[in-house]
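Components:
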Amino acid sequence: MGLFDKLFSKELPLVDMNRIKVDMHSHLVPGIDDGVKDSEESENTIKGLKDLGFQQLITTPHIISDFYKNTFESITEQNKKLNAYLVEKNQPGDMRAAAEYYLDSEFMQLVEQKKLLTLGDSDYVLFELSMIEKPYNLNDVIFKMMLNGYKPILAHPERYAFLAGTLDKYLDLKNRGVLFQVNLMSLVGHYGKGVQKTAELLIDNNLIDFVGTDCHRLRHLPIIEKSLKSKYCHKLVNNFELKNLDLLKH
Ligand SMILES: [Fe+2]
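Structure:
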């Protein structure tokens, strides 16, 4: 974009939120991971996301065996408390909870025991990888997830250094049955220019299945709003069949 275009380009409106409706990636249960710090921040962040047009939220606390030792039971329990708090504050307590699983040995065991928290009532499971190196057993884990009836969704595929910019590696994962969830904030360069470029490459090649905020705190809201007005978010929402609506609770 030249200087002239930059000076005179009009900001796009927010995308049609009816094409998304459900945010399926965030860290809004207070105090159990690196997300919101307390109930008040949780309440205000949830209100902000609803004001932006998200109608339903499925929040996804980290489960990482070395850092965030959350479990199916602890997340469910803490989410119940959050919902009770929201009702107390006159906000509808309709927050659903799942998890963002980090691929480690404990995750492998949970897959085999069929004890994963899935997104809503679906078989979709959100998982993430090391940002730096490819896990040696990635293909094995994907295969085991599929074998046990889960539908794996890779969180923010645009952020992994070992995949970045390489369409072949993404296509290989897709062929193995992995679905991709792009982070909204990647579309405006929040994680750097390289991540933004990879997100654009994935959108240009129709490889994105879900969009999520990955919202960790109140101050992410203005960045999310800007992302929802970005050219690539419009492209994503208007041109392709996003699967976020599969997660609607009726
Ligand atoms: Fe996340």
